Amino acid sequence: MEYKNVHLLDHPLIQHKLTFLRKKETISQDFRTILREVAGLMVYEVFRNTKLRDIEIETPMSKAVGKVIDEDIALIPILRAGIVMEDGILDVIPMARVGHIGIYRDPESLEPVEYYCKLPEDIEKSSIFIVDPMLATGGSAVKAVDLVKEKGGGKINLICLIAAPPGIEKLTLHHPDVDIYTIAIDSELNSHGYIIPGLGDAGDRLFGTK
User: Fold this and answer.
1) Distance CA 140, CA 149 (A)
2) With a threshold of 0.90, does the pTM exceed it?
3) Within 10 Å of residue 189's Cβ, how many Cβ atoms?
4) Where are the domains of the chain?
5) Dist. CA 210–CA 205, nearest whole Å
6) 163 contacts 182 by C-beta, under 8 angstroms
7) Which of the listed CATH numbers 3.40.50.10490, 3.30.1490.190, 2.170.150.70, 3.40.50.2020 matches domain 6-207?
8) How far is CA 105 from CA 127, 135, 140, in A?
């Protein structure tokens, strides 16, 4: 099934690295490194349409006209698993401003619970990229977008590694103006709300917790 607001990034390098993120034998240290690398690779497609402006510079040989980014970019990872993706993106776009949203999923109801929200000032002026490895039930993503919009954010995107149809459909239902960038759309969720085949709990695999 195709979703008009979903951008599937299927570059061979990304798909190669995704295989090792999925493998259960990949240890936390390697998982963190690969996830950071994948986030950096995703930047090239996610920011393909970023606005540029001309500036005059001098090379060692002569004057020239160069191009620089002409947008205020705000990255907002959902704690805790989004932090490592944030690092990979900042490796490529270090000028981005950063906020953080803390949300956990209640293990019984599977509903999102907010516990922290700190966003950059003047967020309404920014191109906003919410970052979270997994779009599963969609509850955390919807809650994060709700919070950003309450603070005045308007141009909002979601960057995730793996998405499942229930999460895509829920986010699209509540926020049809949000574009989703992902490297895989998996088939389903299990009874605990985890993506199948997925890659397990991204936070636990990143930080070696259970």
Assistant:
1) 14
2) yes
3) 18
4) 6-207
5) 8
6) yes
7) 3.40.50.2020
8) 27, 12, 7
